[in-house]
Every structure is written in C-alpha cells, then in structure tokens.
Amino acid sequence: MHNFPKNFIFGAATAAYQAEGAVNEGKRGKNYWDDYLAEQGVFDPSTASDFYHKYPEDLALCKEFGINGIRISIAWTRIFPQGTGEVDPAGVSFYHQLIDACLANGVEPFVTLHHFDTPVPLFKKGDWLSTEMTAAYVEFAAFCFQEYGSKVNYWITINEPWSVVAGQYIIGHFPPNLQYDLPKAIQSMHNMMVAHAQVVKKFKQSGQSGEIGIVHILESKYPISNSEADKSAALKEHVLANQFLLDATFKGNYSEDTWSIISGILAENQGELRTTPQEFEDLQFAAEQIDFMGINYYASHFLQAYSGESQIHHNGTGEKGSSVFALKGVGERVNNPAIPTTDWDWPIYPQGLEDMLVFVKERYPNYNKLYVTENGMGDKDKLVDGTVTDTARIDYVRLHLQAILNAVEKGVKVEGYFIWSLMDVFSWTNGYTKRYGLFYVDFDTQARYPKESAYWYRKMSQSGQLS
Ligand code: BGP
C-alpha cells in the first residue's frame, strides 16, 4: 500500500526553545535551560533558528512545499515570565500572530503546552515533582485555551514525559542533572500524567472547541536473544518507558502486569510511588475523553539482561559507538549488528514503529486516533551549491512512512505525520551539528535552503502517495 488516507496531514514539527531564539524579547522569563546552558558554555540557544522573527518566511515555505500541518509550542515563560502571576502582553501577542500566520498559510497548528521548558521559579520548587508545578501548569493551559482557543483545533498537553524524566533523573543531561534515580523518574511521570489529565478535564469542562491529546515518545524494545533473561529485560524497559505512560493515558490506571514490573523496579531501586484516589479519578476522566495521541518515534532498542549498578554514557557528539545505557533492575541496551544506527547510535528500525502502532491499537482499543508527531533523522548535513543532498534522510523517512502505511493497512488509525524538524533547530543535548530539518539553516545568517528531502516531501504531499 502506497496511498495515504484521505486528509492525511503532511506536517513538520518545531518546539519553541529549539526554534524561536529571541530569548530577550518582551519580558520573557527563563526556563531551566537558560542558566544551565550558559554555565556550560558549550551551546548557545539564544538565537536558535530565529523562528521568532522568521516565522513568516518559514510558514511561506510550508505553503510552498506542501506542508499542511505544523507543531509549535507555546513558551510558558513568554506568557507568564515567572510561571505564574504577571502576564507579558508581548508574549501573548506573539503567539496570536504566529497562529494567525499558520492559518493564513493553510498550515494547521498543533500546539504543545509543555515542550521541555519549565519556568525557573517552578523548576526550583521541584518541577513535576511538586504540586505547585501542576497547579501552575493547569492555570497556564487554561489561559492559553481562553486566549487562543477559538483558532487552535489541536492541543497537546505535554511532549514526551519519558524523555523529560530520562533526561532529568536517569541520564542526567537535562537539569537538575540527576542520574539513575528511577524512583524520581517514575514519580515524575505519574505526576505529569496527572497534570495532563487535569488539563484535559479543564479543556473538556470549559466546553472548548477543538481536540486535545498528549505526545509520547514510544520506542519498541526487543530482547537481543531468545533467553528468558533478555526477554524480561526488554519487557521491563518497555513497561518503564512506554506501557506505564500508555496505561495512564488510555486506561486511567496501571494494570496489574504494568504495576508488577514497576513495583519491582521501584523495589530494586529503594523507592515507592505516591498516588491519591483523586489522581486516579482525573486519569480515568482523561482516558475516556482524550481525542488523540501523538507518537514520537526515532528508534527502537535491543536489550540484554543486566544485574549491575546503573551506567550511562550519552553520545551527544555523534561519535558512533560511544553510547552506554544500562539500568539497575531493568536491563542493558546493546548493539544489534543486523540493524544500522545513526552517528548518535540510534538504531534505525522502522519495523519498531509499525509494531508500536499495532501494539497501541490492540492493547488500548479506546485510543480513537493517532498522529506520528515526530520522526526524522539527525545528520551532519553539508550545504553544497545551495542545497543538501540528504539521501539518507529521505530513505529513513520513506521507510518509516511505509511502516505507518503498513499499520494503517492493519487497521490502525493514523491521521498525520510530522517530520522532525521543519527547519534545522537547536538540539537540547547535541547543539547545532545534529540537523534534522527539511530546510537547512545557516545559523550565522539565518538563511533557509530547501534540502532534497523538502522537494521529495512536497512531491509526496501533493500526490498523496509514498514514492
Ligand atoms: C524529541 C524531542 C525534540 C527533539 C527530538 C530530536 O525527543 O521532542 O524536541 O529534540 O527528540 O532529539 P535530539 O535533538 O536529541 O536529537
């Protein structure tokens, strides 16, 4: 099958902090990346792709290249510089203009309320581990619904809870840079799901028009051998990174099989999960009311059993083969020689996307519909004669779109695809050398150049067929 479903969205994704730059415009407050990155002094996110000023040009490119959907996120600290309290009218008006420009160009905005960018005052209170954070987030969301609700048809509550906690509490490359703290990671995921649920409730109870969903990164996990021990390692990482969040999303609770693995991981890591009955009521409500889920998919993992202490090395430089990821009480990710990897050691495995889409349909029959809200290939692109010959990226995207069409043929409802990313953007832990865009950005001049992939994407979107 090569035909996309009718009205399929051929989109592209961005996130505020990675694209906008302009960190000193208006009264914008800091999120937790600003001081951390400044102290490190390795990457400067202050200009990024200058989307704050260049969005008219970027949206004109969308129109020209057949891109009819865009993921944007609202930077919380442009609206509430301190996370709560005083509102900055300049920030409020910026997002009106941005959303209006999307609509004027025929590009449907999918608007994310939290994409890795907690305001500093709330970060200091404990981020998603604190109840103040949840309360403030619900207020911020309600403000956005009120302000932009008449023109936004698709809202996303939170981007990738798993990546947030993996970065903050397991890998340690997101502030507060803790490592191997699985209990904090699990608690924070639960709290994020409760916050998501409260926002869904607010949205639905306010009689708002439009749809609301959440975006999860979902990477399939496979045992590297048929041994029971390796199978168990793969299952544990799957439950930790995928199923725990999916159960909360669609069941509104943690099923017995999920809970037995999560409680085992908590016990091995001397932790416990605190929950309240009210939280499960909210989760239940949201599970029944959620309109869609976005899946971000880049890679899958192969696992073997592991009995040592946790050990991780994050490959943030593109030095192939340098990654280590082993978690106490879970398992160890290993290289599968049959599967190619990117320079950042991400296994390229489209079958993992098809398997995941089918898994969601089968385990959660109430899922309603899905979008692939991020997928793409980070590479060390070279601009030659005004373009980039990014054949590897086209191959990567083609294979993943085929995997989506295979899943559609198996009855999974997938209504759109958003390539990560629209243009080259700032990568949180890899800086500017890991490029994903359909449009190359010269970060010195901020000029945009369509890559070969942009022309290929246009052909596909215009024909509605995978070529
Ligand atoms: C996702 C995030 C994006 C983006 C992407 C690529 O997890 O939602 O914000 O960064 O991954 O990741 P990276 O930039 O680390 O290569």
TrEMBL record:
<dbReference type="InterPro" id="IPR017853">
    <property type="entry name" value="GH"/>
</dbReference>
<feature type="active site" description="Nucleophile">
    <location>
        <position position="374"/>
    </location>
</feature>
<comment type="similarity">
    <text>Belongs to the glycosyl hydrolase 1 family.</text>
</comment>
<keyword id="KW-0378">Hydrolase</keyword>
<dbReference type="InterPro" id="IPR018120">
    <property type="entry name" value="Glyco_hydro_1_AS"/>
</dbReference>
<dbReference type="Pfam" id="PF00232">
    <property type="entry name" value="Glyco_hydro_1"/>
</dbReference>
<dbReference type="InterPro" id="IPR005928">
    <property type="entry name" value="6P-beta-galactosidase"/>
</dbReference>
<dbReference type="InterPro" id="IPR033132">
    <property type="entry name" value="GH_1_N_CS"/>
</dbReference>
<keyword id="KW-0326">Glycosidase</keyword>
<dbReference type="InterPro" id="IPR001360">
    <property type="entry name" value="Glyco_hydro_1"/>
</dbReference>
<comment type="pathway">
    <text>Carbohydrate metabolism; lactose degradation; D-galactose 6-phosphate and beta-D-glucose from lactose 6-phosphate: step 1/1.</text>
</comment>
<protein>
    <recommendedName>
        <fullName>6-phospho-beta-galactosidase</fullName>
        <ecNumber>3.2.1.85</ecNumber>
    </recommendedName>
</protein>
